[in-house]
Amino acid sequence: MSQTIPETGNPLDPALFRPEAISEETRRFNAEIIRIFTPVPNWWEVGAQTVRDTRARGEGPFPLPPKSARARTITIEGQGGGRIPLRIVAPQNPTGVYLHIHGGGMVLGAADLQDAMLERLNEKAGLACVSVEYRLAPENPYPAPPDDCESAALWLAKNAKSEFGSDALAIGGESAGATLAAVTLLRMRDRHGFTGFRAANLVYGSYDLSMTPSQRRFGNERLVLRTVDMEHFRAAYLHGQSDARHPDISPLYAGLQGLPPALFSVGTRDGLLDDSLFMYARYIVAGNRAELAIYPGGAHGFNFFPISIAEQANARMDAFLAREVNHHPA
Question: What is the pTM of this model?
Answer without folding.
Answer: 0.95
